[in-house]
Specification:
Pfam families: Oxidored_q2. It is a multi-pass membrane protein. InterPro entries: CPA3_antiporter_subunitC, NUOK/Mnh_C1-like. It is found in: Cell membrane. The chain is mostly helical and 120 residues long. The radius of gyration is 20 Å and the shape is elongated. Helix 2 packs antiparallel against helix 3 and helix 3 packs antiparallel against helix 4. It starts with a helix and ends with a helix. It has one domain: Helix Hairpins (Orthogonal Bundle).
Length: 120
């Protein structure tokens, strides 16, 4: 239990991921599924950024002179998360555009109704 209290960002990320996954599985509405996917994305970003941060160290931006390698955090997790955010936004835009086209074709954004109309 002590580990959960010390790593509350990671714990919150895991809870958020579970909420997003539950939304993705339990709802038939495509917009709600996209929202669940975005919650999961955000949880992954929070988890990796929390793991990349080290208390007491600074961002690797040299302002008042170089302080040595051990004074700075690793910038790679943050850079990867910035790339991940761009990919997540692009995926969300594509999913929303696909949802609009499905709504135009089938008149609904409920997945079970789309599947039922597609069979008949």
């Amino acid at each position: 239990m002590e580990g959960l209290l010390n790593n509350y960002y990671e714990t919150e990320a895991i809870i958020l991921f579970g909420i997003g996954f539950a939304i993705l599985l339990l709802h038939n509405n495509l917009i709600k599924k996209i929202i669940g996917m975005n919650i999961m994305d955000t949880a992954v970003f929070l988890f990796f950024i929390a793991k990349g941060y080290i208390h007491g160290k600074e961002a690797p931006i040299i302002v008042d002179g170089y302080k040595g390698v051990h004074a700075y955090i690793n910038p790679i997790p943050t850079g990867l998360m910035l790339t991940g955010i761009v990919v997540a936004v692009s995926t969300t835009a594509f999913a929303l555009a696909l949802t609009v086209k499905l709504n135009e074709a089938y008149g609904t954004i409920e997945l079970d109704e789309i599947l039922r109309k597609g069979d008949g």
